[in-house]
Amino acid sequence: MAIRACLGLMILLVFSSTISTALFEDQVGLADWHQKYIGKVKHAIFHTQKTGRKRVVVSTEENVVASLDLRTGDIFWRHVLGKIDRIDQVDITLGKYVVTLSSGGSILRAWNLPDGQMIWESILQVSAPSKSLLHVPANMNVGKDNLILVFGGSSIHALSSTDGQIVWRKELSTNSLEIQQVFQPHDSDIIYALGFIGSSEFVAYYVNYKTGEVLQQSKASFKSGFCGEASLASDDVVVALDASRTYLVSISFRNGVINFQQIYIRDLIPEFSGKATLLPSKYNGILAVDIASSIVLLRVKGVNELEIIEKINYPSAISDALPLSKEQQAFAILQHDESRIHFKVKFDTDLTNEVLKETIQMDGQRGNIEKVFINNYMRTDRTHGFRVLVVMEDHSLLLVQQGEIVWSREDGLASIVDSTTSELPVEKEGVSVAEVEHSLFEWLKGHFLKLKGTLMLASPDEVAAIQAIRLKSFEKNKMTRDHNGFRKLIIVLTRAGKVLALHTGDGRVVWSVLLPVLRKSETCGNPFALNVYQWQVPHHHAMHENPSVLVVGRCGHNFDAPGIFSIVDAYNGKVHNSLVLEHSVRHIMPLPLTDSTEQNLHIVIDDNLHAHLYPKTSDSVKIFLDEMPNIYWYSVEVGKNIIKGYSLEIKGELDMAENVFQPKELWSIVFPSESETIALTATRKMNEIVHTQAKIVADQDVMYKYISTNILFVATVAPKASGEIGSATPEEAWLYAYLIDTVSGRILHRVSHQGAQGPIHAVVSENWVVYHYFNLRAHRHEMSVIEIYDQSREDNKDVWKLVLGKHNLTAPISSYSKPEVTVKSQSYFFTHSVKSLAVTVTAKGITSKQLLIGTIGDQVLALDKRFLDPRRSVNPTQSEKEEGIIPLTDSLPIVPQSYVTHALQVEGLRGIVTTPAKLESTTLVFSYGVDLFFTRIAPSRTYDSLTEDFSYALLLLTIVALVAALLVTWALSEKKELREKWR
Amino acid sequence: MEKGKGLARRWAVEFAENSYSSSPVDVPDPMGFSRSSSDPDDANASRQKKEAEAAWKAQKAWEVAQAPVKNLLMMGFMMWMAGSTVHLFSIGITFSALWQPISALQGVGKVFEPYKDPRVDTLAPKLLFIALNLAGLVLGIWKLNTLGLLPTHASDWVSSLPPASEVEYAGGGLPVH
């Protein structure tokens, strides 16, 4: 009995050790990497006056406020505000606080400049979120209680900059007022606030800075209306654009008397056509107007006198004015000249001469300059030197100083739209031999050190050396395919239309290309990137060809806008082919078919529901026509609450050049719109591989999984409860979960959750769905699992039939055979709210699965699927325990060690992508948001390989010792035998 | 050759017919003893001796044949100790329970070789020996089955089958945005 007890303990130990898959501290960075980004910079404020660390505070379109080191571009500190908390403006006050205005002028926060700690936060009452302005008086004397003014909607708030208390508040007007410009003449207590009421009325307010009293108010209406842009030309003249954007309107408002003066732009600039835009700038008497082909600088001489100073041809950018002294301002002009950029700095007092003129070589894959921020420094000879912070078209950020790019940040990676992976090239013979020979000594040394470490003989220095060797492993950064499939390229598509390939070893950018078709052009005014697909994955027939990916985009945000295709080589980023399609892109279906060159066949459904086959070759058409009767598609129309299923048909003669197929509606599911709205749909990953169709339950019984790639999970919620949590009572809220077969439109299963509401997240894999929602009754988040089993195969249980192969388990199944299904489901409480859900995938689908949960804290948590097993019960039987069923608990455990991201955060987490490695036990996990994080995980531990830190030297040593012992004992025994014989 | 000599020495002490010729030479014959002398009494005695030896051999052979019973009981006890979960101990026991009868069955001839005698019938003990070992083997297989290591269930045959392929394929979903 004692032995049994002892064995029981052993088993327990083995089991408990398989659950925790945490890392040791020294394993961090071996297989994972983490990159921090900030996104496309909107505003930048330099802080370079004082001695000490020079920095620039930026706010970005990803709602990040960050302080960057001006010397290296590294992040000192960074805060990612919420998705809906858009940053309107950023400034520095008192020389030590960074002030950010966000959420349409309703939240004002102050952050400590050196370390980024939040000092105070004020919530402002704004009637409606609108354009808001932050005004931090420049002439502040420290010690005085300085006020920060916030103009938002129709009110002005004045806040103390030391503690964020609202000092005074003033309602200006109740109807749609938009303040455009705020300024404070030097040494004055009066604030000028200029804006528009509606689209045709101009208004000027004079407000007392200290009390908020409106000293004077003047209004005037302009009959042809304003477009809502205005630029301050001088202390008493503001220039606006009229509603048609073809007239400049100069408005003088001296002493409360408003005068309008219209100037036709074509009179000034004869070649002008189209629409003009005012560039927001604050120059003394200078106006920058963006007309379609160039930027024009105008000097405002009087109310009705404008004069062209300079015309800067596109592509170019112009910075805000930088005050150097009371009279003098400087501004920068950057102009493209093919791969070079001309950088000019001018003073507003002398516009004809340049203070500085430099030429910079620029990487062609960064596109045009979008924004420029200028800053000055004192040279040793007491003259002004200038540096500029440049935001490029691909959202990257560069610092240019003394004709050189000092640093650059690839911040487009903060806005990844979609990603895929590609294999690396196969290692060719004779490539790496020299390197191996070169480092043979190093290799031996490394292994000797490792051995010392294993035997615990290493000194602290040596331990550090071992760690460094492990981190800088040459192996993992090679540009060739490896045996385990750990080295791959992650190909990401960013919002800017740039495609980058990241190496999984260390996350470096292998190649990047700014797709020309996804840039603004005459034919396509507002292109944006949608998705990236595998286009060609050669592994049998076309080995000599490189794999390629298909990037899909669209010209404009409407569904009927023409689509964009671009095929990019995955090894080197060369664009093979790119085109603007003649039709729109509504759905893209990668088919499980390839043509003779192993290009994947894709069906593109346009807005008229016509299907187009790509690639457009006769070969692919032939392959497709064979399979066409079995290809279906469906469309989820969220607004209409309808899911419709279609097949493809050929009407009349098929035009071989066009390959257009017509839809034939087969089925539709209409959800009653008064009680349900579609909240979410989820499907299985097309490339997921399932190892077996059988699930073995306790006592060797078999259940047959319903494995179909055509399962669609749809969650609908009550229309009342489709808003945020708390917007509906539990009685008004419900959630329906559907499992739908997308071929036949059959509803396989439907379940309701009363008192539940979104946000819903779901993941479908094999034969199960896991979804996450909020339970209003329990005030907690819940996760539910539905497993679906095929009842029609249940009678395949005779061993002899199976031995002899007399079964129908491998016969192809059709959705039209309507197999009977049974489902098992269970729900559990889950502590976190979730940002993203994913599941691990492995090469053969044998390894058990883990759910990857992107938590609200921007971390990725791995949760064993065993916790979400509907067969869990409070008291599992002995055989169920042996099977590994965990006793049922009401909530899912969160084991701190099972965070995949360990101590790191993937700020602004948006997606988790899993890719199988060649090694069955291992999954590659790539999660992206503002940050990127990559690691590989083994849900059931690496049972098929030795661990990274396995000491080969120790193994070798053991073998040598054993052989030596063998020889010695053999010699001894020989001797002894001889002696015996002589006796 | 040299090793064979060593063995022969031991054999000579116990069973060999011509034991006298190779008796230890270091002990001199006693006075008046003649090795070559033999009389009819002696022949009679030797026949008796041979009969006794045969009886003894038969008895020994039966003893050997019954030896696996003990083994069987011990195995049974060990198996009970090992329990029915799969782990190192139970697998080791089961495999030794399987291996022992098999190796014994392979060496049936060798085990009964010493008792080979024209006057002794070793067939019956041999059969008993084989039967008992087969029982041991059955016990081992039964144990293997209780551990679930024999493919006697449908689940053992189904797991290796690939999932059925699907005839239809459907794509689509939400419009891409």
From TrEMBL, chain A:
Membrane spanning residue stretches: 950-973
Organism domain of life: Eukaryota
Residues covered by the ER membrane protein complex subunit 1 C-terminal domain: 765-982
Domain EMC1 first beta-propeller: 22-411
Keyword Calcium: no
Keywords: Endoplasmic reticulum, Glycoprotein, Membrane, Signal, Transmembrane, Transmembrane helix
GO cellular component, one term: EMC complex
Protein topology in the membrane: Single-pass type I membrane protein
Protein's cellular compartments: Endoplasmic reticulum membrane
Signal peptide positions on this chain: 1-21
Keyword Electron transport: no
Family the entry assigns: Belongs to the EMC1 family.
Subunit structure: Component of the ER membrane protein complex (EMC).
Protein name from the UniProt record: ER membrane protein complex subunit 1
Species this chain originates from: Musa acuminata subsp. malaccensis
From TrEMBL, chain B:
Keyword Transmembrane helix: yes
UniProt region (Disordered), positions on chain: 20-50
Domain of life: Eukaryota
Subcellular location: Endoplasmic reticulum membrane
GO CC annotation, single: endoplasmic reticulum membrane
Membrane-spanning segments: 77-102, 122-142
Membrane topology category: Multi-pass membrane protein
Bias (Low complexity): 21-30
Official protein name in the record: ER membrane protein complex subunit 4
Organism for this UniProt entry: Ensete ventricosum (Abyssinian banana)
Lineage, opening ranks: Eukaryota, Viridiplantae, Streptophyta, Embryophyta, Tracheophyta
